Amino acid sequence: MLTRLSLLLLFLLSGIVAHTQRDTTYLRQLYDRCLDFDETKKDSLLIAANLIESESVKLKFKSGKVLAYRLFGIHQEMYNNLEKAIEFYYKCLEEARSLQIINYEISAYSDLAIAYMQLEKPDAAKGYFVLCAQKSLQSGELLSILNSYTNLGGIYNTLHKYDSAKYYLQEAIRLGGPLGESVYDMSTTYNNLGNTYFREGDYEKALENFVLNYKKHSNGSGDNESFWVDHLNLSDTYLQLGQMKLARLHGDSSLYIAELLGSISKKADSYALKSRIEAQDRNYKLAYEYSLKWHELDSAIINKETQLKIAELQERFNVKEKEAQNSFLMARVERQMFQNRAISVLSILLGLVVVLVAIAFITKRNANRRLEMNNILMQEQNEKLIELNREKNSLISIVSHDLNTPFATIQLWVQLMQTDAGNLTQEQQKSLLRIQQAGEAGQALITRILDVEKHEKISVASIELTKFDMIMCMESLKANFEPMAAKKDITITLIHPRDAVYIMSDRQLVNRIFENLVSNAIKYSPKGRQVTILLKNFEELVQVEVLDEGVGIASDELPFIFDKYSKVSSVPTDGESSTGLGLSIVKRIVEELNGSIACSSELGKGTRFNVILKK
Prior knowledge:
- The chain contains 20 helices and seven strands.
- It is an alpha+beta fold.
- The protein folds into four domains: 4-218, Alpha Horseshoe (Serine Threonine Protein Phosphatase 5, Tetratricopeptide repeat), CATH 1.25.40.10; 223-281, no CATH class; 302-457; 466-614, Histidine kinase-like ATPase, C-terminal domain (Heat Shock Protein 90, 2-Layer Sandwich), CATH 3.30.565.
- A hairpin with a 3-residue loop joins strand 6 and strand 7.
- Helix 11 (203-221) packs antiparallel against helix 12.
């Protein structure tokens, strides 16, 4: 059902149609206006996107599809349907590449990166931000370059790669500073750089950037959202510097603004910070009160969703368990009925020798049918038990994750008590140490459980299929490994077809395959050599070869290189480490994706890995 705003826009669009000739300029202007729409106008956005799509066909406006697909993607993103939004952004990118319009390509890369960030997939987002930066440099559009560098700085902070984050953020400041604030707002850039220094422990430099942002916003360019971030950052930084009065002042301001905004998550973050401030200042009672308020708000945000998930899983488990029990009972009833019928038939057959053969034949045929039905039933039971096991593993994972909170709280209060350890007896200190050791052991156990769930169990149910371009995937991979290769003066060359090569697979798992192979190629190659990635496109499959000019593998060791923990006699050329797990993981991932991998090598001449993946 259309909103009143949508009906108003539809009326206005109809009026324009009646009184204005629609041409490509009109469609571009409509697209530009739609980019400024917020979530209150998302229905209107859909109307405009449909109009641009239909009119572009009539006007033979080739760029119309790009504009429409992007608006469709933004519309889906406003409804938080990120998978559908990504699908439209891919279509937008494909059209932009076919038209060779670089500005539209940059927009599509940026949209994809932001969508993947919202899906909490920072590695995928980084790949698109890298491509966005490369295309921006190619186009020479300075504002686009500045946005790309600022986004890359933020994503590298998320990935804990602070040197890379500082490089891109400082470049953005160097290039954007001369433009002035009226041309380019540097707030996000300075905020990201302040976070980089904070995470590195350089609190003085972090403070410089946070203060600069606060002053800029105080001059009239900030809103409550910006001021909340400023006060929270300043409070946390002053806390680390031991300036408790300023830390408390900005912490109070962040809580006040969070209450004005009515944001539960912001209030929770502010209370958590105020609890740390009071704990460091040894006001333990007040710290405890703030901690309780933080925990209450945080539980309202996190545990509600978790409890709903647990209840849903439990209900599904109970339903499937009852179904399984009913099925087993039905099978037993059928078997009993069959036995009773067989006895009846045999008693009659005692006196009917003449028709014995015919009746025996019929009975045998019925028995085979029932046996076949029982086999089918057993197969269904096995499938249901597998599904129940998956539900059980998911339930374990969720419960294990939530157990982190009490263990983290135990560790927090142990640390607070240790700050005043001089007032404890020797026996109390020993008890405190035992509590700390028990908490650490509990957290370590939960971490191992979650690691097993995340890394060691790749199954069909955990594979996330998306349609993506292998060329873009390999270009991003090449860009990621070039700094590592440069340290050994190694050149990485990517050879691929001219047109896009799309496959339907799990992008993260595909990345993991070739990250291992390219990393090994660099590790086992002497300085000054070359690593080549060769991508070939076929009708139903894609072939990727990774070749190096390294030390090679002995022929008698080749059959065992994919075994878990296998170690070959060849060693990395620059003292790099090797666990013997990489190739076994690669082979398992390739097989889970219904692909194949092979290796050929010669000592002293290099190694070639050949990976085939189905489209």
